[in-house]
């Protein structure tokens, strides 16, 4: 039996004759629509769904990938098709080309300006997420798998970093908040450190549990260094970079889309990686090649650059911190002023301004709270599966109006469920 003809086989057999129209383009004889019906029905074109600036209809409280600044998205929208008259999309460009070279150099320059990064620190744009740095840090900073290190664990991500480090060094768990469900940070004076530790590792802000370091511990060993995973509060406030040996952060919370991890590392710490270190985890590989050893996450780096510009236009991180403090302040005040209807379990002195976890006194209402909030245009409020309850992630790009709408909903919900 002969095979059924296809548009391609038809064309091969009859090269001078046009192929039949694809079936999807043929009119359906069972369907007929009048002009009046067409004009009154909602359009399915992308343009019809484009909301006016400032009105996408949704406030996204996701912990990451998270909401991005509207001006950044609109600028990227224009560059997506034709980047500054180049005839190419920003996503089509060679990472070796002059256009992208200027993109990555400006992104680094603006980040250095934002954080006042000293010249003796390298800035690397890497892949693999912050989780890959759980291995990269000990591989680059420890000379052997027997080198001692200290880990201060205030949440799930710090715990994951500690467990991963066990493969590449001898980590010492100097304190863990697990027994108290990660709701506090102790006084640093109470924590016994290993005087021989190569470094002290912390997670500056725990995304899941909403615990943030307000100041930073000093390693007991004068030759040791402080390492921080800053993924969920990176560029949310000024930081004295010189106090650290390495800062690393996944971009998808505050400074860009998922796909790029930013590492800020003191230059004298580069070049002594363990022999077992894979080439892509060796900081020297990327420092020597200006983050272009292989094809980097070009579009994500471009987006980060736009966000850095946007943060500078707002007055830098001093002003950003003020805005974040206001948003977090009114939300925590609402929780604390609810008479116990809403509860934040985190000790007040270490509450995160980025990730606000809370529960309902009547836990049976939590599912309803999340569903009703979603119908009102407030999405991704469900807490992490390991914690439950709710979590509002209110990163830099979350506008004050979004937090105010959430607060109004919370008060209304409480009034309807006495």
Quick summary of this structure?
One of its GO terms (molecular function) is O-phospho-L-serine:2-oxoglutarate aminotransferase activity. The chain has helices at residues 7-13, 35-40, 46-49, 70-81, 98-115, 129-141, 156-165, 283-288, 298-313, 317-336, 366-375, 400-416; strands at 59-60, 121-126, 148-153, 170-176, 199-203, 205-206, 211-212, 225-229, 246-250, 261-266, 342-343, 355-360, 378-379, 390-393.
What is the H/E order? Answer: HHHEHHEHEHEEEEEEEHHHEEHEEH
Please tally the β strands and state the result. 14
CATH homologous superfamily title of the largest domain: Type I PLP-dependent aspartate aminotransferase-like (Major domain)
| Form type | globular
| CATH hierarchy: architecture of the largest domain | 3-Layer(aba) Sandwich
Largest sheet: 7 strands, mixed
What share of residues are in beta strands? Answer: 5-15%
Mean pLDDT: 89
- CATH secondary-structure class of the largest domain: Alpha Beta
Low-confidence region ranges: 1-53
Give the termini distance in whole angstroms. 74 Å
Computed over alpha carbons, the radius of gyration is 26 Å
Portion of residues in helices?
25-40%
| Order of the strands making up the biggest sheet | 2-10-9-8-5-3-4
Structural class: alpha/beta
| Annotation field: number of helices | 12
Number of domains: 2
Q: What is the name of the CATH topology of the largest domain?
A: Aspartate Aminotransferase, domain 2
Region (Disordered): 1-24
Biased composition (Polar residues): 1-12
Organism: Cocos nucifera
Family: Belongs to the class-V pyridoxal-phosphate-dependent aminotransferase family. SerC subfamily.
């Amino acid at each position: 039996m002969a095979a059924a003809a296809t548009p391609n086989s038809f064309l091969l057999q009859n090269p001078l004759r046009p192929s039949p129209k694809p079936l999807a383009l043929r009119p359906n004889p069972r369907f007929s629509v009048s002009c009046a019906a067409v004009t009154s029905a909602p359009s399915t074109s992308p343009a019809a769904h484009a909301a006016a600036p400032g009105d996408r209809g949704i406030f996204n409280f996701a912990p990451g990938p998270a909401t991005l600044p509207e001006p950044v998205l609109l600028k990227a929208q224009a560059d997506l098709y034709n980047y500054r008259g180049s005839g190419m999309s920003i996503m089509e460009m060679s990472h070796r080309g002059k256009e992208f070279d200027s993109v990555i150099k400006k992104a680094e320059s603006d980040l250095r300006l934002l954080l006042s990064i000293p010249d003796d620190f390298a800035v690397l744009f890497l892949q693999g997420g912050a989780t890959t740095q759980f291995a990269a840090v000990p591989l680059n900073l420890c000379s052997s798998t027997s080198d001692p290190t200290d880990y201060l664990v205030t949440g799930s991500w710090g715990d994951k970093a500690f467990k991963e480090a066990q493969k590449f060094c001898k980590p010492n768990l100097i304190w863990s908040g697990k027994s108290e469900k990660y709701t506090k940070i102790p006084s640093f004076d109470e924590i016994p450190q290993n005087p021989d530790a190569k470094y002290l590792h912390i997670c500056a802000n725990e995304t899941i549990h909403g615990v943030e370091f307000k100041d930073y511990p000093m390693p007991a060993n004068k030759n040791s260094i402080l390492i921080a995973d800053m993924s969920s509060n990176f560029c949310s406030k000024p930081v004295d970079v010189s106090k650290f040996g390495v800062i690393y952060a996944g971009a998808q919370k505050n400074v860009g889309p998922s796909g790029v991890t930013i590492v800020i590392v003191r230059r004298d710490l580069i070049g002594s990686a363990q022999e077992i270190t894979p080439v892509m985890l060796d900081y020297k590989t990327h420092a020597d090649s200006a983050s272009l050893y292989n094809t980097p996450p070009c579009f994500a780096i471009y987006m980060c650059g736009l966000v850095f510009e946007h943060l500078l236009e707002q007055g830098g991180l001093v002003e950003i911190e003020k805005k974040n403090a206001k948003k977090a302040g009114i939300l925590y005040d609402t929780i604390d002023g609810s008479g116990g209807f809403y509860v934040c379990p985190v000790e007040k002195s270490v509450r995160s301004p980025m990730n606000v976890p809370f529960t309902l006194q009547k836990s049976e209402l939590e599912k309803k709270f999340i569903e009703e909030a979603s119908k009102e245009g407030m999405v991704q409020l469900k807490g992490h599966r390991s914690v439950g309850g709710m979590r509002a992630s209110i990163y830099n790009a979350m506008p004050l109006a979004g937090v105010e709408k959430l607060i109004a909903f919370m008060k209304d919900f409480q009034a309807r469920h006495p």
